[in-house]
Records
---
Amino acid sequence: MQLYKTNTLRVHNSLTGKKEVFKPINEGHIGMYVCGPTVYSNVHLGNCRTFMSFDMIFRYFKHLGYKVRYVRNITDAGHLENDADEGEDKIAKKAKLEQIEPMEVVQRYTVDFHETLQKFNFLPPSIEPTATGHIIEQIEIIKEIIAKGFAYEVNGSVYFDVPKFNENHEYGKLSGRKLEDMISNTRELTAQDEKKSPQDFALWKKAEEQHIMRWPSPWGDGFPGWHLECTAMSTKYLGETFDIHGGGMDLKFPHHECEIAQAEAGLGKSPVNYWMHANMLTLNGKKMSKSTGNNIYPSEMFSGENDIMSKPYSPAVVRFFMMQAHYTSILDLSDDALQASEKGYHKLMDAMESVESLKTGKTSDFDYKAWQQKCYDAMNDDFNTPILIAHLFDAVKRINLIKEEKENITEEDKSLLQNTLNNFVHDILGIENQKAAKDDSSALNGVVELLIDLRNEARANKDFATSDKIRDQLTALGIQLKDGKEGTTFSIN
Ligand code: AMP
Ligand code: ZN
């Protein structure tokens, strides 16, 4: 039987502000959309935290046996500076600065994004669509919104009419804002403004002469507004109403609020059943952010080349550190906190490595079944990873007591313990044992060194058939031998 049938999951729904029992639209299936990165620069650790929270959620759903369609987009057009409707496109600006094509910017930072996530042991999403690949879908939605009377065209641009929408819908319901308050807090429109109201937002922007990223549309050459791409891509792949939409807390307003408005206006349906928001990673108590420079990049963390940390930290340790906080809590990055996480990580990995060799007996001094249930209960309670980790350390304590022969464990409990630890640590939290990986690579290095010695002996005995065979077969396995003055070295592809 699938585990989801016996596990009642409760998730915090930002739309209602409550923890709710999770019930997918189609039993056994989940559609989840998460706003992806804007690929105009390298991802920082803050971005990684949000994506990691949803990677953990995706992993837990899969563990429970759900069939998940996880869509995480790439924003490669339409995201303007300061998240506003004016100013330059972030990607076009970078392209100008570096004197390269916008699509070169996109390619460079998409590759960086994927490489970084791979180091952190992320699972790939099921679909990773791009905004530029869905211009036609975005234009179609704009046409619908105009046809329903919730958008208007001015001078080649199209704006969403927020006050009109608010007459019979609730603009602000996700972020808890009221349109009246927003209106009284904003400046008056000037004569140059095209919008009827300052709260209106762009669905389509006319491309001025110098704007390089442009597409033809019924309103002339232009480009889509940032909020629209997520409405187009989420509903295309997951349906007009789907289960979960996620992103960082900072996207609640205006991005997600506008997504709701677009879908309700254009498609006539509330798009999402559960809105989930991950909280921010801070540095020195302030939000980590690309624009303020208050950030640290994953590569700087792994190499130790930064002014903040006293030493390098591996991707697994950083991932463990992030999983020690609940995804809805703010997490502050500091050297002290990482040092503590590193200690904890090694303690956990050492304990897990030693389970295999634990001696078993006729009885157990600990209720392992109840402990396993507690691990599930923690995750079922809105993915409470810090509580889960506290339970994992209860198991570490037990393992150490058994090693010291102060407690006993049965064979059956030992395999339950081993499986449960593997499931929660590796499969659900996504934390790898990088020490074991290193041990594997040192074993491989030892084997190659041994083969190099055998090849040298063969060459010394003029047995070139054997020496060539060793070199050729290693090459076929992706291991290149290089003969130099100092002897033979090798590289592994
Ligand atoms: P962006 O590339 O700016 O569109 O952001 C990509 C994702 O990272 C979004 O879901 C943001 O909410 C999230 N994000 C940005 N800054 C932080 C931060 N300091 N901590 C956690 N998530 C963040
Ligand atoms: Zn989005």
---
Amino acid sequence: QSSRDGFTSPFKNPDGVFAINARKGSKLVAIRRLARDQSKSSRQTAEVAGTAVGNVLGIKEDKTENPIAVEIDAKSDKIELTRADIELSRRKLPSYAAKSALLQLIRDNQIMVIIGETGSGKTTQLAQYIYEAGICAGGQLIGCTQPRRVAAISVAKRVALEMDAELGQEVGYAIRFEDETSEKTKIKFMTDGILLREALLDETLEKYGCIVIDEAHERSLNTDIVLGMLKRLLSRRRDLKVIITSATMNAAKFSKFFGSAPLFTIPGRTYPKKLIYSKSPVEDYVEAAVMQTVSIHVSTEIDSGDILIFMTGQEDIEATFDAIKERLAEVYSRNSSISTFNDIDNVEIFTIYSALPGDIQNRIFESLPSGKRKIVIATNIAETSLTIDGIRYVIDPGYAKMKIYNSRIGLDSLTVCPIARANADQRSGRASRTSPGTTYRLYPESTVEEDMFAQTIPEIQRTNLSNTVLLLKTLGIDDIMEFPFIDAPPLQTFLSSLYELFFIGALDASGKLTSLGVAMSRFPLQPSLSKILLIASQNGCSEEMLTIVSMLSVPQVFYRPKERMRESDLSRRRFFVAESDHLTLLNVYSQWKCNKYSHRWCNKYFLHYKSLQRAREIREQLKKIMAKNRIKLVSAGPDWSIIRKCICSGFAQQCAKRSGLSKYVHLKTGMDIQLHPTSALYGMGDLPSYIIYHELLMTKTEYACCVTAVDPFWLMEYGALLYDIKRVAYVNDSQRITQVDVQSGNLPQKEDELEHRLKRCIAE
Ligand code: CDP
Ligand code: MG
């Protein structure tokens, strides 16, 4: 019996739980949401309201003869749609109208570029069309790459639902450290990085019959490399089909790159956009966005649409989230008779950022019950990768966080930058996908013309390439300049990446991969982390280093809520190991393990359980890779001093020397650096003379994050290329060395010479 027949009148009981009466014996497939007018009959409201929410909590037998009451948890993440609902929503997508033309194109060509507005169904439909049409027969996989982990997972979930398949069976996904596929898998969503790593094992990607390179317009570093790799592969694999999908920007470039590959545009309609600019630049974009949101919410009818706010990252997003809640509470408490359309219970605020990939809630994609407004605060992931229906208002502060590499000083940093015009257009497009919408740009109109680039600079031209160079070398591409890049990276970036790899021992002076380099490439980690793991294994502490590396691969483990910051800081101190943040992380993990990986224990000590849990999973994955490559897992026992030395082996180039009481200078670049206030070393009486750091945070001050005190002799051992000993002081009688002064070596000369050799190796 379908849900349509099974319903009597649904109602919401006082604790927000929906209850409905269904006929006895009817199978509950979907719960229809009430329309505004609750007095209408359920059949009618069912049609008005559309999609379903909730899963069945419990079924109560009613004493009267046939109906039973079914309780639905309206807050549950789980949705159940009828097959008919799903089929209908698929058919409404613009790509459906173009289905037969698309399939013909795919049959006739080996490579093609498909363009469509976001939300037209490229990501969710293309792979399904190919599968249904049997183009990829013979047991070969259909692969679909995504630049972002969060998108890969969420799209796989959606497609599994549409195909009525269990996730991990016919439809699966793979991201770094996580593989949800099986032998049965036919459609595989993955990050572009995963496809690259698969190419290391099988250069010809034999198991794929068809590969969709999705979101190519994003020009992520890995997508660019995948495209170059496929270009080399196409002539060897005549049976392989490659489909590149792109939003409207950049598309022609891909066609040209693949020798005028056919372009196909999915027809779709766009609606007029209304743009409202700030009169002058805003001082605090979080504040401005919050004001704007609250003002929209109180002055418009709720059913006029949902609100999407773009923010740069987790911190901004959380601040915005809290501030909106606070401000709304204020507005409604100050004047309860305030004449607004809406009240505080009528909003639900969602956040999307890519901290932990599993975190994204399915509910973000559902429409809320009538009379409730959705406010979504997201990073630029919501620009094109994820489409949320029902957005009618967009708030765009005009910024995004970008990874920027300064090859001259060899520093990578995450920096908040103005977005490009193409991104601003995409953002405003999110408001007018299904009807006209409004975008509030928190910057003056003149900014668009005067201060914004037309397009974002592709990642390959603004990021550190050490990882990529190591990967290409492992793929046997010795002459990296010969690799077909859509846009070549700056020569200087190449050189400094080669230099970095040479410095940590992955390449020899002629640019060839060393055996250490080969071993490093087996790990899906940045080269310096692979190195410390390998060195630790040789020095009897890989058990501990495995934990440290895993902990460095997850977002912040310490939880610091605004209202309990002091308490949280005090709790954090419990775990401090005086000379090292790396060892502090090890300490946290070890204690968590002693407490049986308990969730409650984490809450008690202000630790993010999910981050720790993730670290544990990553640790398991890395452990498997170690076993496979016969890398010994050995524990140092209670003596942790050797661990610090091993950390130094991978990070000697990221070193700072104390200057004055609490300041440091970067040993290589001479730049002033401060310890981050969250460091275990911060506020210590006697600060160590030399530290290495894991990351630099560039704000008004340059902060070293996650630092470890190191011995100057270790620096000489692992950094002899960079550093010289300037002065050694002895205590006369015993001849014991008491003071060593390390300085940046005769660097320019050394680098020049090396540069010369590396350049030669590129030229050859
Ligand atoms: O890739 P493209 O931007 O062309 O569209 P898509 O991501 O395939 O989205 C097509 C439709 O599926 C949109 O209406 C999305 O809202 C919906 N969708 C969803 O409901 N849940 C997801 N996890 C992903 C997409
Ligand atoms: Mg898409």
